[in-house]
Amino acid sequence: MRSLILLFFISLLTLPSQGQTAFTFDKSTAVNLESKTLSSPWSGGINSAQIQTIDLNDDGAEEWVVWDINSRQLTVFEKSGEEFIHQPEWAYYFPEDISGFLVLADYNSDGKKDLFTSTARGIKAYQNTSSGNSISFELAQDFLPLDNGSNIQANNLDTPLIQDLDGDGDLDLVIFNFASGDYLEFYENTSVDRSGSPDIDGFAFPVRHWGLFEICACGDISFGQTCAGIDLSVSPTENARIQHAGGHSILYQDWDGDGISDLLLGRDECDILYFLPNKGTETDPLFEEFSTSLPSLGALPQFPVFHNPELIEGNLIISSNSNEAAAIYGVDFAQSIFRFDGMSTPILQDQILDLGENTRPFFLGNQNGGKLYLSANVTREGEVLGEILEFDFQNGAFEEKDRFENIRELGLSEVQYLEYTDQTGRVQRLLTGIRFEGNIPQQRIFQLINNRWTELELSGYQPNRGDYLSLFNYQDEDYLLVAAQNGGLDLYSVNFEILAAELLETDFLGFQDNPANRNLAVAVYQKEDPGLYTIDQGGILTYLDNFMQQSQREEVQIQIGGENYPTRLGRNTWITLLPDVLGGKPDLILGTRAGGLIYLKASESTIPPSEGIQLIIYPNPSPGPVKVISNQSGTGRIVNALGQVILSDISLEAGQELEIQSGFYTPGLYIFQLQTNNRNSISKKFWVR
């Protein structure tokens, strides 16, 4: 963790700030984890997957569209055999307001699956208007209506059943009762009956207690009567009191081979799916028993809580569908999607970078090399605590180096790792996180001293739960930004010699307590006039240039297909920067609530590159090899303090780092002289220890 040299190198960059550029998704930078190169490392991770399939590029094969209700991320994977290839740009062609659930089904029989999602008024529908490989959706219904025009209410934690049940060509609807009981209601689509064409412009009044059963509790289902013992054949009067407002998942498929669909149900508080064989018909089902086993497949797997079944290409896929934090039920979100064929086999997540929950990245170095530290909530034997994973970044690839499981001994979750060289030149290695003390969550700070994490107190700063810290230097002074969970931002000056902080400004830059801007995170772009990247639960990334002097915010843009889009990130995102070695715009690595990472690569600047020569040598002083990089190609040589040529004909390519072995040089002063291809020249001194 030697950051002093790297931060000293970064401080050499004194180029003026350029205008903010857009970013593109990086899918090519390799990540090697557990001796395996991941096929889709930058997909952002997955906590609770609602998986749907759709052909988006008109190649005849369906992609996996994953809506994560927990992290509020939509991801798209193109499938090639058993390999999943993340296509982050495609998600930006979907509607922005996906919420609660996601169902893809063709409502107008045009051969293209349309989109259904939750809205405050019930179920919202978008028509798939894609043409060829051009993806687009248009609003079809702001809510699904009854024939009288009133809206059909649906719980946004449910995944409704939307399919043609009566065989007339239009999509019918089955949902759990929204208000007064834990039972199903069937809504027949009347569009074909009314107009002869399939649509979603009207549904009949519901058939209540569809299938004649009620769920009373996990493992307790009442058949033929309500949970209160009332005979369902006499249509009992509804109880206005809400019985169960939690979520459900529904899969209606034939599992016992009799040609009639059966039910496979999930419930939010339950740890297993329930199989209900159908003794009736497709449209008028009758359920009289349940089990936790499937015919020919055997006993269903258990999860800590709520999960979702989906049948894809004949395979039963079971995934977590919990909207809760991992610690509440001890969920292992790093292993939350399985293919079940009698045995549970991980699928998809073994090809992405997914550490569990709430990955906070911290990078030291630049775009040519460095170290990446990832802290995350990791579940082991049902206990959720923070761990740190370290990667080396060299030759354009991230390679797993070490995993620090020992920090679990501190009893922390929501861990953030920081490393900072203060104005005195001392490296401060800090760790923050939440520890429960007497069932009360407390935010704590630790400092690495003699290879031991020791609790640290900064006088003048009282940590609050969820604080996210960012240290930076401005005009030779050390500062601390504290981004609060409530959306506020405070600025402190900090003195590590006396372990003291002084509050300079609350609600800094206009960031203040606001329910709409919870989960604020910031990252400083360290330069002479530092910049600031910010994000909150809204998922929109912003940038403030020269933020110590002005507070104007600019939305960061994502370039897709020649157009710019504001970011659509999840409800928790954390940012770290990969500086450009020659002073260009940094790349960004974003950590997510879903335990993964997203890599945003700075687009080419619209500002012409500087015509002046830039030459950087580091580390300086050096005990061994030195690295040389220039913005212009040319030929260099090294001379000693006496003017003697030590090494000549050193070929440099613009923007490419060159390592020169210097460990065998006599300690002392040396000079690197570069003559560019356009006959300009520059010299830089460096010292060998």
From TrEMBL:
Signal sequence coordinates: 1-19
Keyword field contains Magnesium: no
Pfam families reported in the protein's UniProt record: FG-GAP_3, Por_Secre_tail
Signal among keywords: yes
Sequence ranges assigned to domain Secretion system C-terminal sorting in this UniProt record: 617-687
SUPFAM superfamilies: Integrin alpha N-terminal domain
Keyword annotations of the record: Signal
Protein name, as recorded: Type IX secretion system substrate
